Amino acid sequence: MINRLSLFVQDYIENIHMPRIRITDIIEILIISFLVYHIMLWVRGTKAWSLLKGLIVILGFLLLAGLFNMSTILWIAEKSLSMMVIAIVVVLQPELRRALEQLGQKNIIFSFLNSDSSKQKGRYSDHTIDEIVKASFAMGRVKTGALMVLERNESLAEYEKTGIAIDAAVSSQLLINIFEHNTPLHDGAVIFRGDRIVSATCYLPLSDNRMLSKALGTRHRAGVGISEATDSLTVIVSEENGKVSVAYGGELFGSLTQEKLREKLEMIQDKPHEETKKQGVGWLRPRKGAHNDKKADAESGS
Q1: Rounded to two decimals, what is the model's pTM?
Q2: Per-residue pLDDT tens for 108-146?
């Protein structure tokens, strides 16, 4: 028995090759882990995150095709691989350019270390919600047009850079002053991040949805456009008739009361599940009356 055990040790245990771990190997592992971690943080804040999830779905489908030996699908995937790589680079061109610009900044290390600030993204206090509601209807009474975008999980940094940096606490007086006629900051959109106003006079993409009424002006189309491109929520005050609308997920919800506006804004507060369940989330999905909302806002113009 002892002889057999000794033979087993000689044949298997002693022949196991244990690589020599150097201090440089440990440093290399730490550097790679650091880079991968912060690349994933960066990806989550860009459109690349949605693209990555789509790629995972495609890879899962190809894995099933390989398991079931679907040769035609695998042949098509193999031939289109190079084209897909080029397409990904084209789609992510703005994000890749911005990442390279950040690498050239001197404070790149500190921005990595302070990445905890992203935790505040998309979280809004009751005070912020109250101030936005108060400002919206105060401007609506005097028919002052406004366009206010609330950032959620997807970063609005690309659009934020098109405006003027503010970085101020949210207050109804400040919002009313920003959108006042003939003031330097009134034209364009205001972007919120957490409980801060981060930028004003921002340019937003216009929606090309043909289902929207032709009577809608640029302000409403911009609100719908940014809601199609990101997961943000946009509050729109019409300059024509003072009506307040909300754009979310490519849908336009018009002619809102103060209670309805507050209800919609509370849905993006990321409150505990129990509170959110009590409030309901039915408005986030297209409603049977959503088309009527669009018709109601069609009279609002820009």
Answers
A1: 0.61
A2: 455 445 544 444 444 789 999 999 999 999 999 999 999
The full set of domain ranges for the chain reads: 17-119, 126-298
Options 2.60.120.10, 1.10.1740.10, 3.40.640.10, 3.40.1700.10; CATH of 126-298: 3.40.1700.10
Q: Please count the CA atoms within 13 angstroms of the CA of 62 that sit on its side-chain side.
A: 13
In angstroms, rounded to a whole number, what is the distance separating the alpha carbons of residues 285 and 295? 18
Q: Are 152 and 269 within 8 A, CB to CB?
A: no
Nearest to 204 by CA among 157, 148, 150, 159: 159
For the chain, what's the residue count?
A: 302
The tens digit of pLDDT for each residue in 218-270 reads 999 999 999 988 889 999 999 998 999 999 988 999 889 999 999 999 988 86
How far apart CA 29 and CA 6 sit, in angstroms, is 37
Report CA Rg, the chain: 26
